[in-house]
Amino acid sequence: MAELPLLIFPQAKIVDPPKGRPGFSTPNVPAKQIQISRLTPQFENLEKQFRADQAMLSASIAGLEPEMVLVIETAGRIEDFQRAIANTPGLEWLAEWDKEFEPDEYFFNRDSKQQKTDKQVEGRLYLAMTKQQGLVELLNLWNLWQKTNDLPSGKAKWRDVFSQIKVIRRWGIQEQLIETRVLDIWREDLEYEDTAHERMNFQVEFFYRKDRQARKQNEAVFKTLLEELSGQLISPFLEYSEIGFHAAKAQLSRNSIQSIVEKIDRNELDINLLKLPSIMFFRPTGQSLTSSPDETAPIETAPKYPVSGDPIVAILDGVPFSQHTWLKDRLILDDADELENEYQAGDRKHGTAMASLVIHGELDANEVPLTRPVYFRPILQPDPHTPNRHEHVPDEIFYEDRIERAVRRMFEGEGEVPAQADTVKIINLSFGDLFRPFIHTPSPCARLLDWLSWKYKVLFCVSTGNISEPIDLGVSEGEFNRLSEAEKTQITLAKINETAHRRRIISPAESLNAVTVGASHNDSSSFSYLGQRVDILPIRKLFSPTNCLGQGFRRSIKPDILLPGGRQLFNSPPIGTIFSASLSGSPPGQQVAVEDNTGNLSASSYTRGSSNATALASRAGAKIYDVIESLRRQMPEAIKEDQIAVLIKALLVHGASREGAEDVLDQHLKTPANSRQFKSYASKFIGYGNANISRVLACTEQRATVIGCGHIGEKQVHEYRFPLPPSLANSKQWRRLTITLAWFTPINPNHRYLRQAKLFFDAPKNTDALGLSRQEAEWNQVRRGTVQHEILESSKVSYYQDGDELVIPVQCNADAIDKLDEQIPYALAVTMEVKEGVSIHIYQEVRSRIQTQIKIQ
Q1: CA spacing 20 to 30 A to 794: which of 280, 362, 383, 844?
Q2: pTM > 0.70: yes or no
Q3: Is 90 exceeded by the pLDDT of residue 192?
């Protein structure tokens, strides 16, 4: 079929925003006397704990003003609670997070008939630092509220707070140690005698205090309490105000850790370090990549294609084998930290594979390589303490610091060194922190990517992460092999679904501004020999069985897209029913360039995982860039320089569809309990679906794609008009409309929503002229991130006339901020299509009418 260029909307018309503001409902709460009865013991316990902590810490650090972090869990939200905290002397606002509760006898939702429902209760978790003055003031307000509803001027908001409190308590070990899994990891490490590691490393994250003096005092007190336990810092303190991050890396002896664990197990919590109110979390240290296959095979010499120009893609990873015949002269290697000195022959594994995929795609597919060089900044290095020398970020180094320095060096330079790659639009990050699965709130690294993406207007492509743990299928190999394809799929999906809570996406995959990429169970390899391996999920359009699963922050869609990550086979168990992921370097999988132990310059192997899929997304982004540049040469003013990356983001997602995958999930995982929310439920497995990049690089006679870009401010509406093709008027011909809106948002790390800018469009309704109905993703969920991707279809009779247009209003609201001062860069892509081969020339009809719009404008 003929390939035709993408079309460009004329400049959007700015129109008035719609009036009105949606309200919100408050769940049922207990009567006042019940609240008094429920909460009085909690307030008394708070006061008791504050005095006990004060006595303990004062004995260690003279003159320290006592503080405590209050956790106030409410049913429903409290409007302007942050202002109420600020108006209360001795209280300091720290954070606010969304939370859901199971309904109980006191807190529940009602239906339209005012009957109690079993729907989860939406709530909030508010965090505030209190000094003694603040606690006294809070207790006085509590006592006054018990006697009367009339609170002093400026304090009336506390009336709502006391009515809606479910729990009030102090921040403690549950959040600091248990939910971060560091306590479990300490226990596991202590089970093994390790004379080579008499000291154990960990990371501490502090509550970010706006006052610099308070932050410095927290550092000094932490260091003092650490030294009480004969511990020490292993790196300087690190802080980034832009993402609300303040942290330390430290170590204690195994004996000290053993003592802490034993005391916690006995519920003896008289440990000064754990009582320090400034500590938000204890976390494990280090980020490590999984093993790479050892088997390699030679590959033919790379074909000669010219490479020139400035880099558009950057890779942050381990040092690549840049002399490999398939990589030579195609990388700009900027090893600013001289990490290559840490490598031995055969160590350059992950970075080499990622560079190979970004530049060439799967070697089996015989694709043309990228024409531009790829900028490569190493940030990983081998771990000499692991048998296979896995590549990692060392314990004493902050992952966030290496990334921030690397990106800043690209766009601004470092010291006397000028900017090294300020033409880059896409940064590939094909690894994550296995110790940091996404739970509730975005990690510091995810927030860092959001900030850097906004600051430099660059797109990060990030992997979901992989889970390497074995799967107990409940049947032996022989029994499994006798099953039909559908039965195999049923068993595997059920087992993966059972363990979904252990398969959460890993940091920084929850990043709002990034495109998060999961692996589909697919590749370009051909093979005939399974050996002792089994394909436990034999459907190529489904996700890889080793994928980490979404959803994202505030239940947004993550992963955004799936791309091939290689068919992941599993080793057959000699006995039993537990199957483990095969790390074989033989096909199936994705053929990549590798470094072997002999220095062979043309070695290859087969690998798999979401890292691979992410590299293919970055490669696709480079192809999209070439298309955009071609359009810019024709219409230089249509796409500004700082809109290119966000347009790449929109087009990466624009070709995605759940077709062929959602039906399988529906068949095997849909139940009466999840049926009403199944579209949202399915997104954690497949996101917006498999991305078909070829669909967004060009149009056909039966498929027209029109793109638009802009900068939009708060309460603005940019109106786009898509001309309806006259050949579809009064027709029952099947048609599909796909609309994708993407943007970069600034972030507010002190607000529960984080995202400062909320952009959205209202999708056409089935009562409109085209008679379209929404397919695939759930209408509310698509508005929770920074990509709204809608697919609508119909075979009903359409009712419109030649000259009619589909109006698409792009709206912008402030989200995590009272007033949005920034102009937000966004991109819109709209595709209308009929089935290929149908004698309707959609493209020409849309093109001629778009040109008319431009002339009129």
Answers
A1: 844
A2: yes
A3: no
